[in-house]
Structure formats: C-alpha cells, structure tokens
Amino acid sequence: MSALVQFLENRKATTQGNILEKIKVNGELIAAITCGVLIFLGWLTDKSGAATSSVILYLLAFVIGGFAKAKEGIEDTIENKELNVEMLMIMAAIGSAIIGYWTEGAILIFIFAVSGALETYTMNKSHKEISSLMELQPEEALRITGDSEERVHVSELVVGDLILIKPGERVPSDGEIIKGISTLDEAAITGESIPVSKGLKDEVFAGTVNLNGSITVRITKPSHETLFQKIIELVQSAQSEKSPSQLFIERFEGKYVKIVLAVVALMMFLPHFVLGWSWTETFYRAMILLVVASPCALVASIMPATLSAISNGARHGILFKGGVHLEQLSDLQAIAFDKTGTLTTGKPEVTDVLVQDELSSDEVLLVAASIERHSNHPLANAIVKYAQEKLAEKFIDPESIEDVPGWGVKASINQVEWKIGKSSFVGEEAVRQFKNNKSNELAREGKTVVFIQRGENLVGMIALKDLVRAESMNAIDQLKKQGLYTIMLTGDNTQTAQAIASESHVQEYIAECLPENKVDYIKQLKEKYGNVAMVGDGINDAPALATANVGISVGDGTDVALETADMILMKNDLSRISDAVNLSKRMNRIIKQNIVFSIGVIILLILSNFLQVLDLPYGVIGHEGSTILVILNSLRLLK
C-alpha cells in the first residue's frame, strides 16, 4: 500500500513539475492572453456604465500584460544606461491612460505582449534544436571490464574504455568499433535520414542510434570532446553571436529612441502655439507619435530571422558559428576547395591492373599484394585491400623482403626476385616499352602508377587514384549556377591537378600548392573577387580557413579545421554549401523585406498623425500589427 501511495505522490509531483515547466516556457503568451481577456471584460464593463470597475480591469491588463516587457526594458536601461523600445511602449501606454484612453493603452500593451511572446517563441524554437540534441545523448553506458559489465555515467568514461552498445540503444560517446557489425541512424549528427552500415574499425558518434546489431566500441574521445558536444557548443555560440546588421540596428535603436523622445517633448507644446491645436489634441497627437514612431518592428526585423535560419541549418546538418557568417554567405563571389579529403575521398584506390599478355592479372596481383601487405604505405594498403576484395586465394609469404627507401620494395618468392615501386626503380626504358608507354597515359589521367618487375622483366603495373567524391561534381555545378567561381588548391603535380579539376568541374586549379602557400592564394583571391570562401578538412587547411571570409569544414575534418571554420557540414556532402548559400540569400531577402516594411509603416503612421487623420486605436494596431507581421515573416525561415 505504501508503494502505491509513493507512486501516486511521485506521479503527482511529476505532473505538477510538468505544468510549472509549461507555464514557465509559455508565461509571456499566457500573460498576453490574460491581458486580452481583461481588456474585453473592461470594455464590456465600460459599456454597461461601470467606469470605475473598467479602469480596475484595464489596470490589471496593464500590469499582467506589460510586466515582462517593462521588467526587460527597465533592466536593459539600467544595465546599458540607455533608453530602449520597451521604455517607449511603457511611456506611450501610461500617456494614453493619462488622457483617458484606457482601452487604447491596454490594447497597446496587449499587442506588445503578443509580439514579445512571438519573439520568445522564436527563441524557444531555436533553442529547442539544442534541447532536442541534448536529450539524444544517453547519461549511462555499459562498460566492459575483463569478463564483467557495469553501468557507469558517461562522464566516467575515459579514452580506451570498452563499451557494449545493444540494438536500439544510443551511442554514449565517440569511439571505434572493435567487434560486431550494425546499422546506425546518424540523423542527429549529419541530418541524413538514411542509416549507415558500420563494421570493424569504423567510427561511431555519440547521440547516434544503433539499430540492429550489438557492437563493442573503444572510446576515442572524452565525453566533453565528442562531435556531439561540439555541435551543441557551435549552435549555442551561433545563437549568441550577432550579425553586423543586428549590431547596427541595436546601435541605431538607442539614438533613435532619444530622437523620438525629443520630438515627442516638442510635440507636446509646439502644435498648440504654432498650429493652434488645443492642449488635449496636442497631447493626444504626442502620445500617438510616441506609439507609432517606436521602432519595434525594425528592431524585430533581424534577430528572429537569423535564429530561425540557424535552426533550419542545424536541423539539416549545416552548422553556423554565428549570424555574421550566415549573412556573408549570400555575398560570396568565389569558393576555393582543398583537394584531398574534400573534393576527393582522401584514400587512393586501385583503378587499373595491367600485366604482360601471357600472364594472369590475378596471379601478378596476388604476388604484389602479398609483398605490399608488409608495408604501411597508403598505396600499399590500397593494393592489399583491392586484392582482398577481388581474389579468393590466400596471400603468399615472401622468403625475404627489403625496403628500398624512396624507390620501392624488393622481395624473394620461390627464389625469384620481385621489385615493386616507381618507374626509375624498374627501369625507365622498360616502362616506356610496356604496353606502348601506357603509364604516361595513366599519369595524364591523374593516376599514380606502381610497377612490378619479376627477375629482369617488367611484368605489370597497378594504377591508383584518389577518386573524386560522387557528390563533388554536382555540388560544384550547383555553385557555378549560383554565380560562384570555383578554384581547387592542391599540392599535387600539374598533371594530377588538371585531371582532378576536369573531373570535379572546378573552373581553375592551383597545383603544387604547399600548405604555407594556401594563405597567400586565398589573399590573392580575396583581392580579385572580394568575398571568398575556403573549404577544407585538414590541419594544413586551418590557416586558409581562418583567412577566408567564410571558412567551411566537413564533419570528419580534423579538430583544428572544425574549430577554425565558420561553417561545418556535418555530412561530407558538398552540395550542402549550395543549400547554405540559398538559405543565406533567403534570410537576407526576408530581413530586407522586414526592414523596408517596418520603416514604411512608421513613416506612413507618422505622416497620418501629423495630418490628424490617425486615431490612437489605429496607430496602436498599425504599429504593433507591423511588429507581429515582421516576426511571422521571419518564422518562415524555420521551414
């Protein structure tokens, strides 16, 4: 019985906690609705002749609806020692009440409260991206120690620990699979909804979901340094950083408020003496001016749009480190790409195996792979991997192996000497005669050729190439359609650079580019084109990423590249750059719409007031209505 009572008490406490949390999150909206209800009751009471009761209801509407904005305005004024829009609204509402326009003053507070609730909704919607991310990372992990397993908090995991992740569980920390095969849903990290198959030595990331197989993972990063945590930090940083447009509006706001107050002060006296208006009309028009000249819509033109766009990008695997970088993307004129690991896969792959006509290509490949498997060179690894996929036979154990630094490797198999290496290692003349100098043609295609010699005879050659990513060509074509000039920077020789540039469709390439030269080339491109982006993934790209107007890194780039870049593609899909440029252009277009619309409404309302054709209720609706429309227009960027 006591257990049941405890359960009911816990459930009651949880329910109360959820209700309080909802009230806290939606407090401004609840206050605005309550304010609207009180205004309606006050209007009904006033119509029935109970003036005193209606004033009390209006006062309650003032306090409940205006409390949040008044508090915000007063705190900001004290902190920054400068008046703001919120203070203008408070003064306008109080002024309306002083001259007997209780209903209009209360409506002003109500609509101002609604616009404030909409702004808060935008912020909450943006922060929700982080909250939903943070909920994805599990708090516990199943750590394997010897023959035992124990549940530990994620913060207790250290690099080298082994953890077991069962089907349906989320990965608690970044690591490498050492046992098992499974399919993982990486949508939280890359924005890509298609699950990815993972096996031995593949990386897994915190927050992703293990779908169908048990895997044992070795931890490679502490919990506070995981890619997942970096995403959260980047989005938080982006939301707090303000764009140049937003900073300008905020600086403008302080000066504009002072000008409005000075003009309102003059408006309280000059029309009476100069134009012969009555004191009541003069004060009434001054209060309308206070309402309609307030730059509420102008102030709300940028931040909601920027936050909405950043949230949209984060949801699709595009992370911006601040509104300034998102804003700059639409002005790009040129974009430079690192080759290896960015335009290409970064790993050489076998493309051609050519042998003497009377020999079997499989037999020659088997011998070459048997020798190369004793080397750690990337080309050797690629040959071994290709042989493993293509051949069923077991590798041969050489009787002896000798590494010849800078040239290749020598080995003895069945008392026959084999040489594998560059052309000068096996003889330039033999290379020229082999297959009618086919190696020269392969080199022009950007391929690296490894030659195989048996005894004194050249018997074969293997061509390898760092292949262009499948999505690179489409991504480059999309950027070119958007009017961007594309350049590839690479340390490769001219032949290879030309071949890769042709395959990837870039318009220009700079070959034999050393890491220290990349910064110089980016500076030259900035002088020529103005606004330039750099895309890279390696440590050697970091200086160039920092030099460019917008630095872009791919999600599996080095930590240095990720930290230096202004924008990160969580999935190594370069087509997302085009999406980001479109998002930036769309955001800037909406911001311009907001600014032009808000300024136009302010000018129209001010002129109407001076011509004495605008009454306070219409001034309130026109001004505050424009603020709400501006915010709603910004919210379109969430989609």
From TrEMBL:
Cell compartment(s), UniProt: Cell membrane; Membrane
Keyword tags: ATP-binding, Cell membrane, Ion transport, Magnesium, Membrane, Metal-binding, Nucleotide-binding, Phosphoprotein, Translocase, Transmembrane, Transmembrane helix, Transport
Family under the similarity heading: Belongs to the cation transport ATPase (P-type) (TC 3.A.3) family. Type IB subfamily.
Lineage, broadest ranks: Bacteria, Bacillati, Bacillota, Bacilli, Bacillales
Any single Pfam family the record assigns to this protein: E1-E2_ATPase
Primary localisation category: membrane
Membrane topology, record value: Multi-pass membrane protein
Official protein name in the record: Cd2+/Zn2+-exporting ATPase
InterPro entries in the cross-refs: ATPase_P-typ_cyto_dom_N, ATPase_P-typ_P_site, ATPase_P-typ_TM_dom_sf, ATPase_P-typ_transduc_dom_A_sf, ATPase_P-type_domA, Cation_Transport_ATPase, HAD-like_sf, HAD_sf
SUPFAM superfamilies, A to Z: Calcium ATPase, transduction domain A (SSF81653), Calcium ATPase, transmembrane domain M (SSF81665), HAD-like (SSF56784)
Species whose genome carries this gene: Lederbergia wuyishanensis
Ion transport as UniProt keyword: yes
Stored NCBIfam families: ATPase-IB1_Cu, ATPase-IB2_Cd, ATPase-IB_hvy, ATPase_P-type
Keyword Magnesium appears in the UniProt entry: yes
Membrane-traversing stretches: 25-44, 50-70, 82-101, 259-280, 286-310, 595-614
Start and end residues of each P-type ATPase A domain: 135-236
Cited PANTHER family: CADMIUM_ZINC-TRANSPORTING ATPASE HMA1, CHLOROPLASTIC-RELATED, PROBABLE CADMIUM/ZINC-TRANSPORTING ATPASE HMA1
